[in-house]
Structure formats: structure tokens, C-alpha cells
Amino acid sequence: MWAFLRGLFSRRAAAGAGERGERLAAAWLRREKGFAIIVRNWRNPADRREEIDLVGRDGEVLVFVEVKTRAAGALVPGYHAIDERKRRVLRRAIQAYLVRLREPPRTYRFDVVEVATVADDTVAPEILHFENVPLFPGRRR
User: Fold this and answer.
1) Which of 36, 53, 80, 101 could disulfide-pair with 67, CB 3.0 to 4.6 Å?
2) Which residues of 84-97 are buried (b: 16+ CB within 10 A; e: fewer)?
């Protein structure tokens, strides 16, 4: 019973940290990179398990962003935590998003934003932005 409750609370804490990381990433992309954020946490209506953390515009480029929030010094950095299973889900979600657009974008890309947090809330998190991460094998847009 205690293990169940401990797991439940740790999942809620992780969800809260993820939400905070997405807010920080969206604000940072707007402020530092000049992005226009179009939508946060877009889910495919046909399969609610497929989610895109952020969709934004960087000039004329439509950008799909996966945000990974980690504790500073985590053993696996956020960028490397995107395994092949997650890549397949992201590809499906992005394709579903693109199909629903009235006009397809001339170009789009996939970025990863890693938010490294520390326990002390007075210290700003470190934010790393990886642009144009390969997601679609053999295809460059």
C-alpha cells in the first residue's frame, strides 16, 4: 500500500515538474529566441496518448518542441531520454498535427528543450535548446 501511495505522489510531483518545465521553456523561447508559441500540450484527437509539448513559430518555420525537465546533474540528460519509442510517438503526433492544418507549412523542424532544475527555487534553472534534431529519417524539411 505504501509503495502504491509513494508511486502516486512521485508521479504527481513529476507531472508538476514537467508542467513547470514546459512553462519555463515556452517563456524562454519567446524571450530569448523570439518564438511565437501557438499551442502547449497539443494532443491528437484520434489518439490522446500522442502529445506535442509546444508548437511554435520561429520566423516562418513551424517548430515542434519536446521539453524534458530534469534535476540538475541527472544521470540521463533530457536530450538523451528521448528513446526510439518516444520518437515514434512524436512522429505520429506531428504528422497528425500537420494533417489538420488548412495550409501545410513550407518548412518545419523538431527541437528539444532541456530544463535542468535545482532544489533551491532561488536559483534559475539551466535551459538548453537543441535545434533541428533529426526525427524523420531520410527526410529533411
Assistant:
1) 53
2) eeebebbbebbebb
pTM passes above 0.85: no
Question: Which position has the higher pLDDT, 68 or 118?
Answer: 68
Alpha helices in 41-123 (DSSP H): 84-99
Domain of 112, in residue numbers: 2-130
CA distance 40 to 20: 12
Helices (H) then strands (E): counts for the chain:
2, 5
Q: Which CATH number characterizes residue 59's domain?
A: 3.40.1350.10
Give the number of domains in the chain.
1
In a domain, residue 139? The reply is: no
